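Page 42, continued from yesterday. The earlier attempt failed because a stray header line got pasted into the input along with the sequence. Redoing it now with the clean sequence only.
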Amino acid sequence: MIALKQFSKEQKFDFGMNLAIIGLAILIGVIVGMNEEWFLARNFTAGYMAGSLLAALLLFALYRTIVFFVNLTKK
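This time it went through. Structure tokens are written below.
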């Protein structure tokens, strides 16, 4: 287990945000995988993996872009 006491406030926030993004990506993947209009029921795993990967990539890109612009305004 990671000792969160060793992290700074920014690192704790970043760690929590990353966990939230991964959790949200898993939830989106399950919803996409269960959508029988896009994937047959027997292909749930393919839909889950595609949905989770795409959601995680988009959410991480959005998060890092926002952090980049926030850091630009701080300087």
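Notes: The mean pLDDT is 85.
Reminder to self: strip header lines before submitting.
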